[in-house]
Amino acid sequence: MSQQKTSLGLIFLLYAGGLGAAGQFAKIATIFPEIQALYPASVVTQGLIMSVIGFLGVVFGIFVGQIVSSLGYRKMLIAGMLLGAAMSFVQAFLPPLPLFLASRMIEGLAHLAIVVAAPTLVTQVTAPNKRYLSMTLWSSFFGVGYALCASAAPFALEMAGPPALFAGHGFYMLALAGLSFAFLPRLGLERAPLPTLNDVIARHFRVYRSPYQSPAALGWLFYTLTYLALLTVLPPLFPAEHRLALATMLPIVSILSSFTLAATLMRFLSAVTVAQIGFAGGIAAALWMAVFGVSTELAVAIFVVMGLLQSAGFALVPELNKDPQDQALAMGGIAQMGNLGTMSGTPILLFLLSLMGTGAIPLFLALIFAGGFTSHAIAKRLRQRP
């Protein structure tokens, strides 16, 4: 059962697990040139080292949500941490490329277990009237984890090269597993029966047809389609001396927006409404860009909007789904659609840029943000049906 009081210690312990999950992406992305030098291969194969975790998320997101709710949230969280630690230790030995890729695939399952179980547990150790705050914190895990890993990477490379970063991540995950085993209580949440193959297929249809479980996943799809794509495309449009600063600043802007503007709005408005405000703001920014072009101020404004979508995206899971099993499925949907958006957004925008030039950016943003706003409007209408 969920707690009526908020346990800050447990929330931060679970958040630390999220940082470790973010590190599973960041430990490759932040040292990708070194990885390319260690594993000379085709560009596609090298790209798989980074993206195979995301591919598994697309395929198995909701399935892992079902498994987590069947086998137990605490158990699957700790198992994910231990499995993640083991794969990092394997990678620290720099095995041959096929084995390295296999370790990344297995690590993808560990990643899914963490990002489904941990936020579901966060909602259960938070008082109901404070869940929007804990979900705001959780929504920042990827950006914060990425930044921390990027800060640690130069020291690790100087110490012993990529193996030091991989081993450091492994020890971090191992320590978290131990702390979670020691301090994370068994909450006595009801477990679902283990799913059959037919159950898995049927559950996908049920989740994406549900106006309660689908909004988080679909909203997250439209958010992730734009987030990484803009971080990739916008900085090179500015003078060289400003690119690095802008690339560093924009994710921080979205995190600050989550903790300040989004958290304030959700004291008075539902998470669904805040998400719609975010998408509407994104449409307005896209129209402004179409008329006046790209500017630093506009880029910052767009990432303020991203902060609203980031925070509200997770907060609406417990808002719309009171049962932990439904929350786990919604989190699985977020993992599934989030990985799909992250994998496909940048290639789509780059393709449009090759056809239309920079005029493709406002068109891309307007269409994506309109899709996000519309998806929430339709789901809201369906929930209001008698």
From TrEMBL:
InterPro entries: MFS, MFS_dom, MFS_Efflux_Transporters, MFS_trans_sf
Domain of life assignment: Bacteria
Keyword Cell membrane assigned: yes
Assigned keywords, A-Z: Cell membrane, Membrane, Transmembrane, Transmembrane helix
Membrane topology: Multi-pass membrane protein
Subcellular location: Cell membrane
Record field: transmembrane: 38-64, 76-94, 106-125, 137-157, 163-184, 216-238, 244-265, 359-379
SUPFAM superfamilies the record matches: MFS general substrate transporter (SSF103473)
Protein name, UniProt field: MFS transporter
Source organism: Cognatishimia activa
Lineage, highest ranks first: Bacteria, Pseudomonadati, Pseudomonadota, Alphaproteobacteria, Rhodobacterales
